[in-house]
Design a protein that fits this description.
This protein is an alpha/beta fold. It is built from 19 helices and 14 strands. It folds into two domains: 197 residues, 3-Layer(aba) Sandwich (Rossmann fold); 220 residues, Rossmann fold, CATH 3.40.50. GO terms for molecular function: NAD binding; UDP-glucose 6-dehydrogenase activity.
């Protein structure tokens, strides 16, 4: 089957490459000529483990191609996926659907055969209805079904998530739409991956509800971490204790500096706006968004406390290890590191930083932060070393070398990747999250 993927960003490129690996003929379409040129040269626009090899093998097989020409790209495609961005709209926080609507209008203009138009982008409830209206107003003579097929990809593990999903959600209103989507996902169906067919609006809401629930779990354990510090408990023990309950589960119960990335911040906000529009407030999610926003600055204050407090911070130096919102990605969107660094800079602290993949994107966001060539260069003469992102490279730091290079042996571990007793035995003043 020929599949067209409109949008060659994170979701579109990963999805297109995986569909091609399943044996489909896939065309990835993007208006950014430089991005398409780089893809033709084998240069990925994002960092995702294994993606470059997956793209290269499917390009070599002839199953994956790239173009800026939408009319050419969708010609003869049975499934046309819309995978463009839906950022928070400036001013009101609603999801900006202008790119989705623009693609729908262009698809309507150039459609050359019966097809399913699939919203892969994360979109609010009712977006599929509007895409359907746009297509209907074009008076196309071809049979078209509009389907919602939300993605559930974790950055850093996206290929595995796509090929071995917990579930595939397909919101379809017609038999034609269900038949085409069955064919699209037949390779996964044969692997007994669970495919859920729902109404289109249910599928749209499932994506937002799932992300809001996961954001709630993260925020809950972060608040429990604060309480653990007050009462002398260990948040890692608490996390294991509640996560062992099958009704709760252990995932997303790791205390840290707050959630960030491309999904949780904008999707929780978009869900709040949808709930507001329908006069059905989701107050738990409101609290989650508020608590998470305040937590990031609080982590900066935690670092300040470790170096003697805000009144004594001016002129001191802090090394930040990790800038991306999570490891195995170069994504800086809403990363806690941004708020931590800004809190330190506001207090007059000199900040140096190192991240294995994120520094190119971090530079324009943190112009006052010195980007070092390696972690030890960042640590040199630092009054405190702060672990913000739990990259594997930071789990095995040469602590003797760290102690030798740093001005003071202060380690602030915002991801709890070290054993407190072992680090303190090495002579460090160790600070962690939710632990004594």
């Amino acid at each position: 089957m020929k599949i067209a993927m409109v949008g060659s960003g994170y979701v579109g490129l990963v999805s297109g490459a995986c569909f091609a690996d399943f044996g489909h003929d896939v065309v990835c379409i993007d208006k950014d000529q430089s991005k398409i040129d780089r893809l033709h040269e084998g240069v990925m626009p994002i960092y995702e483990p294994g993606l470059d090899a997956l793209v290269a093998s499917n390009v070599a097989s002839g199953r994956l191609t790239f173009t800026t020409d939408l009319a050419e790209g969708i010609d003869g495609a049975k499934a046309i996926f819309i995978a463009v961005g839906t950022p928070s709209r400036r001013g009101d926080g609603h999801a900006d659907l202008s790119y989705v609507h623009a693609v729908a209008r262009e698809v309507a203009e150039h459609l050359s055969s019966d097809a399913v138009v699939v919203t892969k982008s994360t979109v609010p409830v009712g977006t599929g209805d509007e895409v359907e209206r746009i297509l209907a107003d074009s008076n196309t003579p071809f049979q078209v079904a509009v389907v919602s097929n939300p993605e559930f990809l974790r950055e850093g593990a996206a290929i595995g998530d796509f090929k071995r999903p917990d579930r595939i959600v397909i919101g379809a209103e017609t038999d034609f739409g269900r038949e085409i989507m069955n064919e699209v996902y037949r390779p996964l169906f044969l692997n007994e991956s669970p495919i859920m067919f729902t109404s289109r609006r249910s599928a749209e809401l499932i994506k937002y509800a799932a992300n809001a629930f996961l954001a709630t779990k993260i925020t809950f354990i972060n608040e429990m971490a604060d309480l653990c510090e007050k009462v002398g408990a260990d948040v890692q023990d608490v996390s294991r204790g509640i996560g062992s309950d099958g009704r709760i589960g252990p995932k997303f119960l790791h205390a840290g500096p707050g959630y960030g990335g491309s999904c949780f911040p904008k999707d929780t906000l978009a869900l709040l706006k949808t709930a507001e529009d329908y006069d059905s407030p989701v107050r738990i999610v409101e609290a989650v968004v508020k608590v998470n926003d305040s937590r990031k600055r609080a982590m900066g204050r935690k670092v300040l406390d470790a170096i003697g407090g805000m009144d004594n911070a001016r002129g001191k130096k802090v090394a930040l290890l990790g800038l991306t919102f999570k490891p195995d990605t170069d994504d800086m969107r809403d990363s806690p590191a941004i708020a931590v660094a800004q809190t330190l800079i506001d207090a007059g602290v000199e900040v140096s930083a190192y991240d294995p993949e994120g520094m190119e994107l971090a530079r324009p966001l943190l112009p006052k932060v010195h980007m070092a060539d390696d972690p030890y260069a960042a640590i040199e003469n630092a009054d405190a070393v702060t672990i913000v992102t739990e990259w594997d490279a930071f789990r095995a730091l040469d602590l003797a070398r760290v102690k030798e290079l740093a001005k003071a042996p202060v380690l602030v571990d915002l991801r709890n990747i070290y054993n407190p007793d072992e680090v303190r035995a090495r002579g460090f003043d160790y600070h962690s999250i939710g632990r004594a």
